[in-house]
Structures are given as structure tokens and as C-alpha cells.
Amino acid sequence: xxxxxxxxxxxxxxxxxxxxxxxxxxxxxxxxxxxxxxxxxxxxxxxxxxxxxxxxxxxxxxxxxxxxxxxxxxxxxxxxxxxxxxxxxxxxxxxxxxxxxxxxxxxxxxxxxxxxxxxxxxxxxxxxxxxxxxxxxxxxxxxxxxxxxxxxxxxxxxxxxxxxxxxxxxxxxxxxxxxxxxxxxxxxxxxxxxxxxxxxxxxxxxxxxxxxxxxxxxxxxxxxxxxxxxxxxxxxxxxxxxxxxxxxxxxxxxxxxxxxxxxxxxxxxxxxxxxxxxxxxxxxxxxxxxxxxxxxxxxxxxxxxxxxxxxxxxxxxxxxxxxxxxxxxxxxxxxxxxxxxxxxxxxxxxxxxxxxxxxxxxxxxxxxxxxxxxxxxxxxxxxxxxxxx
Length: 389
Ligand SMILES: O=P(O)(O)OC[C@@H](O)[C@@H](O)c1c[nH]c2ccccc12
Fold this sequence. Notes:
Elements: E1 4-6, H1 25-42, H2 56-82, E2 106-108, H3 117-135, H4 138-146, H5 154-165, E3 169-174, E4 177-178, E5 182-183, H6 190-199, E6 204-208, H7 218-226, E7 233-236, H8 242-250, E8 255-259, H9 265-278, E9 281-286, H10 289-296, E10 303-307, H11 319-325, H12 327-335, E11 339-343, H13 349-358, E12 362-365, H14 367-370, H15 375-383
Parallel strand pairs: 3-6, 3-12, 6-7, 7-8, 8-9, 9-10, 10-11, 11-12
Antiparallel strand pairs: 1-2, 4-5
Helix pairs in contact: 4-8, 6-7, 6-15, 8-9, 11-13
Bound molecules: indole-3-glycerol phosphate.
InterPro entries: Aldolase_TIM (IPR013785), Indole-3-glycerol_P_synth (IPR045186), Indole-3-glycerol_P_synth_dom (IPR013798), Indole-3-GlycerolPSynthase_CS (IPR001468), RibuloseP-bd_barrel (IPR011060)
Protein name: indole-3-glycerol-phosphate synthase
EC number: 4.1.1.48
């Protein structure tokens, strides 16, 4: 694809469709610096900037660091792609800018444009988390955790609800908005909604903490925890870094979501261990058979969520839960005693019955209940009976 080159002061450039993108920075730099004078004249968007003066030693060190970062970024994307993960963890970055003299440029192409909403969320999360980490380094979080109250048994609460009612245990979601459905509820009081859910018979709650795309927050999670709500809480985040798990634990989570479409196997393994260490349950979410295969190959997983919504296209199809529980997958899940959660797009008692029949022991529901003027009554409508009794 043809690229538009414009000079920017940002140190990041994206050149995935540039012919030398897959070459290491140095060889790229040599090629590009040779090409530059010719290309300059054909790209009117180029504006030269004053070079920043840096001493040669500093420059070398900075180069080495940027080259390393570039290599690590490429490596992560490659490992993920080899496991069928289409989501790239961050925009493919290019070599350091000063390899091409005083110019800084950005090539606009497929490389630096997210391919879908999930990728956009993940790229934004990458920036957000690195800023949060700077403000609250892991060592600081670990100190807080030493004094944090114990977590509540998320999986136990789901099992108890299932055996009490004979219906799937409900994880009721405190959800103000989503990129696919827009604002779900204008008068959004997270604590009031959480209390109504608890009263209506929810076994656990899910609290969205992503601000930009779901209008959630960690303040909501913390407020619900501090309001005396007894249900265990799932922190609904896009986790890309173990730091977020520690942060969620401090903010009052009892469980956290890990999305297989975003995380390579090794990350899931490592994060599941961290969750255990911190007393959190991990809800590992899958959407297709390949993700289910991957996750079933990882030891120590107690909870798998099957998302009926494709996070890349927003399409919802509740038969996805059934499809992923058929045959060998279903057998393995029963052998391993894994609890499956049917997620998204559940509106009626028939929908709940359908996913229960498919084999789930829990459901995760947001839209259909959060939209009701009394979300507790919304639960009664969803199950076709009062499950608080
Ligand atoms: O509002 P719904 O269709 O009932 O869906 C709830 C929940 O499953 C959905 O919010 C969800 C499932 N997985 C996610 C991952 C990120 C953000 C949101 C989600």
C-alpha cells in the first residue's frame, strides 16, 4: 500500500508495509537514508525539523535501547501470530528516527492503523498501562497487597448458586456502555446497581474498569467493594501486563478476566500463576475453537468463559457456547472439572436454558439486566423466576 510520509516529532514510526519493515533497524536505516533525498521531493508533506543535539554516547545508548524495544515488540507479535492470535500487542514500530538524519516521519498504512476495535483497545491499553506503571510501580503495589483484606471465593460462589437454584450461577455486570451498544444506562450509579444485583440473587458481580471504551473505572470497583456488597467481584479489564493484576487486587477484585484472543499461551500460564498467588480467580475467555484448544492445554485453569460476542466484529451468536462445548472439548472440560461461563447476548429464560443445556454452570450478563429500571427485577426477568430465594 502506498504510504503518506509526514514528519512528526514523535519517536514512533510505523512501517509494516514498507519493504524493509522486517529487517532489523540498522539495515532499514541504511536503505532509508539512501532513499530519503529522492523521496523527499515527491512527498510535499515532509517538513524538516531542527535536529535535537545529543552527545554521541547518549545517542548510541538511546539507539541501542530503541532497537531492543523494536526487536522485542516484533518478537511478541510474531509469537502471538504463531498461536493464531490476530491481535497485535502494539503498533509495529519502526527503527529510531535519527537514523535518517534530522528528519522524523510517519508512514500511514496498515501497520499503524488498528485492524479492529479489540486491537484498538489493546494498543490504547498499552500506553495507558505504561503511564500507570510509572506512577505506581509494582514494588509499591506489592506493599499495599501485604495489608489488603483477603479475597472472596469467586468460583465457590458460582458453584453454590448453581447447586442452590439448579440454574447457572449469575455474574451480573455493572456496565455503563460498550463500543458496540453505546450508552446502556444514563443514570448510572454503580453502587446502587451492584446492590440491586446482589438483592436480585446474583452470585458474583463483574465490574468494567476500562474507561475509554466502556466508561468504567477502578473507582467503581473500589466503591462497590467498600459499600459492603458481599458478592465476589470480577475486574473486567483488558489485561496485557501482570501489573494490572496486582492493581486489580488492590482495588478490591476477587477475580480477573484474561482474554485468550489477546494473550499468548505463556502469558496466560504466567498470569494464572500470579492470580493464584494473589488469591484471585482467573476467568479465561475464549471465542473460538482454536482458543479453546489452547486454553485447555494450560494447567490450573478453573474457569473458562465462552464469549458469544466476537470482539473483532461485534457479532453475537449464542450458539457459539454450544459449538465450543461439543465433542472432545466438552469431555475434557468435564474431566478437568472446569466451570464454564456463557458470556454475552443473553436476554431471556430461553437463552439461559439453551446455554445451560449446552453445559455451562454460570452466565455473565450485562446489557439485558443493566438496562432495566430495577436491575434486580431484570434478573428475575432473565431467569423467568425469582432466584434470590
Ligand atoms: O452485555 P452482554 O451482552 O450481556 O455481555 C456481558 C459480557 O459478556 C460482555 O460485557 C463481555 C464479555 N467479554 C468481554 C470482554 C471485554 C469487555 C466486555 C466483555
